Amino acid sequence: MKKIYYPLACCLIGGILASCGGGAKKSNATEEAVAPTTTAVSYSKSLKAPETDSLNLPIDADGYITIFDGKSLDGWRGYGKDKVPSRWIIEDGCLKFCGTGTGEGQTGEGGDLIFAHKFKNFELSVDWKTSKMGNSGIFYYVREVPGKPIYYAAPEVQVLDNVDATDNKLANHLAGSLYDMLPADPKTVKPAGEWNTIVIKVKDGKVTHTQNGKKVVQYTLWSKEWDDMVANSKFKDFQGFQEGISHEGYIGLQDHGYPIWFRNIKIRELK
User: Structural domain of residue 139, as residue ranges?
Assistant: First the structure.
């Protein structure tokens, strides 16, 4: 990352040259023009492709890299695909999935979305809101397994309208939960149509979910606790979970068939 400065000398020369053109006023520019600070991030353009392409993305003073800035989907593509499915659009600076509201995910030009750079230790912050009855998820350590869904081998942080969604009967299916394994406690989610912020921190296998400023879930990957949770979940027969969750992977957003919005998606890598 670096800052680029336009030297003061250049400004003075520009003023002198302008005055040669017929008595223009002297330049009194004393401010330095500073370009935004960026960092290079590699990414994979398609299934099984290596991360040989690169993006320059904004990075702030705290080390957060903006991976969705409200303007571009550079670095993103469909899970198992080489392009962004057309039902994922940018609207009013937000990333929106144009669901039908019927819960029929993965149809037509839909499908899950990934940011195609593999992260290992990180802190991810995402703002999200749902439509009425909305259902979606945020995945991490995603690995693309041909012919298998995104949740086949990746943990899911639930995104849900807790009040009206049909999948609101189990505590570990509510917003902020480690889906089907560990419930969010306390329940801090806001109603459908209002923005929530989830922060997912993963460091050497220790994971926390912080929703709207409150830590609601914590657990440790690749531990006996983790194995016990998997054994008591719907994932117990998933080969991807039996093989073990990867130690690095992509960030994913789920198409579950409902309109969902995301914004301010940023991540910082942890040492």
Answer: 38-269
